[in-house]
Amino acid sequence: MGSASHKLQPFPPIAHEPTTVTGLRHVTGTISLGRFEPGTARADFFICASPSPYLDAHPGAPGDNLGFAAFGQVVEGISVVHTILGLPSNGFSPFPDQKGEWLKPKVPILSMKRVA
After folding, report:
1. Phi, psi of 3, rounded to the nearest 5 degrees
2. Mean pLDDT of the chain
3. Mean pLDDT of the 97-103 span
4. Rounded to whole angstroms, how far apart are CA atoms 24 and 26?
5. Which of 103, 97, 72, 96 lies closest to 1 in space, CA to CA?
6. How much is the pLDDT for 19?
7. What phi, psi does 74 have (nearest 5°)?
8. pLDDT higher for 44 or 78?
9. How far is CA 94 from CA 51, 84, 100, 101, 109, in A?
């Protein structure tokens, strides 16, 4: 994602599934979709390194209160998530509000699997 020629959005948008519908919560190890507006998530995701209830949907709250769509959970290796969190985050970001948040060097995902 560091070059201008890289497509930032390679997949069609995914329908938003708020935590009020799925029942999932942003606890330590939750895997969730990154998005701008609801229904704009594509391929970017993040892993919660600690409980993050502010990422859950909060009906009745002002503004965009649909939260982020949690869809998975780290079931083994949360220490790896914490190690990655400690890596340098001075990588290029095309989004000004994410400056200083992108890893450099990038960390490749070598494998993942569905367990349930």
Report:
1. -110, 150
2. 88
3. 89
4. 7
5. 103
6. 96
7. -70, 120
8. 78
9. 27, 21, 11, 11, 21
Q: In this predicted structure, what is the pLDDT of residue 113?
A: 80
Distance between CA atoms of residues 114 and 55, nearest Å: 23
Please count the CA atoms within 13 angstroms of the CA of 83 that sit on its side-chain side.
5
Question: What is the pLDDT at residue 20?
Answer: 96
Helix or strand run (H / E) with residue 22: helix 19-22
Strand 70-73 and strand 45-47: the pairing is unpaired
On whether the CB atoms of residues 35 and 17 are closer than 8 A, the answer is no
Q: Peptide bond preceding 38: is omega within 30 degrees of 0, i.e. cis?
A: no
Closest CA to 20 of 38, 37, 36: 38
Q: Give the model's pLDDT for residue 6.
A: 45
Length of the chain: 116
